[in-house]
Every structure is written in structure tokens, then in C-alpha cells.
Write a structure and sequence with these properties.
Layout lengths: L4 H8 L1 H17 L4 H27 L5 H19 L2 H10 L4 H22 L13 H6 L1 H17 L7 H22 L7 H31 L4 H28 L5
Helix pairs in contact: 2-3, 2-6, 3-4, 4-6, 5-9, 8-9, 8-11, 9-10, 10-11
Length: 264
Amino acid sequence: MSVLRSKRKTAFSEFERQMGIIVRHTSDRLNSVPMRYRKFIYPKIYDPTNRAYTAVILANEQNSKSANGSKQRSALFTEALRAIVSLQKPLLALWNILDVNEDSAKQWADMLNREIALIYGVTKREEVQPMIVALPKRKIQRLAFLQKMAELHKYTYEKIGHAPNHCKDFLSGKIADYIDTALCSVVLANHKIPETRADAERRERYIQAAIDSLNAMQRPLLALWNIMDYSEKTMDDWAGLLDEELKLLEGMKKADRARYKDLR
């Protein structure tokens, strides 16, 4: 059945309306971020969200019937998708820091995934559609490596949140990036149980990325400890969480190789 003429513009611009809903939801939720974390969180979520919104607005203004307009429109949609996908890591960090329940995180992720689906539909893309994954709080409660990673991530933010602003660019900001990457990597590693060799290799790459990030974090962490007046207990607790998570990840990587060795 053909779409009614009066409905065509509404259908065509649904991706713009949906992105506006996302912007409002994002703004409302970010208001609850404690001040000490905003310097780490705000730019990583606000900036990509606003870039995506600007891109879809501009895409909706292009004349899709002209060669140049169609090309510009496609490029703008690609820019919007890239910005949305880049939200995965900072959103997982935000949901963990604020202890957001899984259903609320999934609601936010579903909004973004609907926008991705709308863009894919209007541009008729054939490649695999990316998806934003919500923080799996229920899995975190029962899986040791996820639970310890979430604990380490939250503890790290609690401490770097009180570091002076002049440390952000070269120390605390780097620590935040490393710990966010580690959290995101372990969540994505466990998002899908491997059914093929490719799945198992993808899972191992995520686990290794988490290990690499935690190891890389140690140098700026030591530097921050030299600047900040942390107690011995704080440094011991922090190092203990880090060592425990590394041991869990190394053990899981070894176990996975045995568990998935027969996959094709």
C-alpha cells in the first residue's frame, strides 16, 4: 500500500524527531551527574549527541533528488551514525557511575538504536547495523569479572573526581579513558555467547583490549598517586581491585580458549 501523500513528510523526517527526543532525554539525565564527574562525562556524551542531531537536521534539508544533495545527505547520515556509535563507551561509564538500573539504561539504548534503525531504513544501508548495548546490571551481579570491573570503574571515578582540574588533560582524564575502555570491553565481550570461531575471536579481542587498557592505566595512575595525598589504604585498595580484575580476565581468556577451541 502506498504511503498517503500527507504522511510522506512525517515519515521522511521521523529520524529528526527521534533525535530530538534523544537530545532532550540526554539533557535531562545528565543533570543528575555530580559536579566532580562532569568534566569527564559531559563532553563525551553531549558533544556526539549534538553532532548527531545537527547532522540529521542538515540531512533533512538536503534535496535527495539531486546528485549533490543525495551525496551530502548520505555523508551527513554517516556522520550522525558515527557520533551515535561513539556514545557506547561513555554511556556505559555513566550508567555504572550513577548506578542506573538496567531497564533505564535499556530505555536510553533503545532510543539510540531506534534512531540508528531509522537512518539505516531511510538510507537503505545493507551493512550490519550497529547497536548500543545497555549496562547489564543483572549479569554484573552474578559474574565475577563483570562485578569486579564495575567496582574498579566506580572506585576509580570516585578518586579521580577529586583530583585538581589541572591534572585532567595529562593524568586523570587519561585514567578515565583507560578505565572506560576496560569497562566497555568486558561488557561487549560478554554481550554475546560465542557460537562461531569468529565470535570467539571477537570476544578474545575485547578481553585483551580490557587487559591492555588496565595495564596502560597503571603509569598515569602512579603519577597521580605521586601528586595526590592518597592514604596507603586507598592506594592498596585501588591496586588490589586492579590486580584482581587482571587475574580474572587472564583466567577467563585461558578458559575461553579451551571452551571454544572446537568452534568453526
